[in-house]
Amino acid sequence: MRLVCFLYLLCSLMACTKPRKVFLEITPVSDAPIHAIKSAGISGDTLIACGGFRYNRGDIFYSYDGGISWFAQKGIAEKAIYDIVPFNDTLIYAVGYDGKLLISETFGSSWHLRQLDYIPLRRIKRINDKLFICGGDGFRRGILYQCNLNGDILQRDTFENELSDIVLASDHTIKVCGFGIVMSSNDKGKTWTPEDASGDFFINFVETNDALFLVGRSGMILMYTKNGWDKMIPAKTSINNKRFLTGSTYSPQRDIWVCCGKQGDLFDVRSNKLLRLNNEDKTIWNYNGCCSKDDYLMFCTDEGYIVKLPAY
Description:
The chain is mainly beta. About 5% of the residues lie in helices and about 50% in strands. Strand 9 (about 100-105) and strand 10 form a beta hairpin.
């Protein structure tokens, strides 16, 4: 049995050593890191992104032509903005460092701030007409808010693990993940139960055409089944504190799933393997968030660039 496990791990690691070259389209957007990028879903060409410097500036960026050109709103918050979610053609929510919750009812023309606890907020999702916001710091401190659409706190839960993502699963349970932990709620967030998932700092959920998956920063990927979380790909020992995954996105149109990370890491996830994607011009970017948009994928970087990966 040990030999089988060793061979499985070896094959998974070897899959990362066979790179595939891709051509990336690079657009300089900011002098500060960009942390998240989303498809606005308002028109086929609208994208929105957020970023800034951790301690002194939060920025929002808009593109109305599919990422060719960008309009910047710099300094709308005193701290960096880590996640942003447009809900319709007027309403946008964003969260960031030091407990900043920003709300715009005019699609960015004006913003107002709701100050939560002074802790980094990493993700915001709208589920069942509530805002679910999670975050934390130091790996061992996590927080989860439930707010109404005006930003008023309805419930506040604290945990011993930093949290990073939230999802409404197909079985109507709400799940949150973070540092070595996954929790679920089947009563719309009133109570939370730990699930059998560990072994990595889980950074985000990915919903494909087939199933719900969970991605860890060290490369572990779990698949959600009726029996719980099954390991699809083990953590990669080649990823360390300076080289780790930061995001993952799936394109249903192309049936392509790509993970991104620091020091230029891009991986195509398929057949229970991670296939490395190398930029043809060999430039290395430190990727943060990512999203799918029509027939291409979009990434944002610490260097302030928006990176487009066309079909390959």
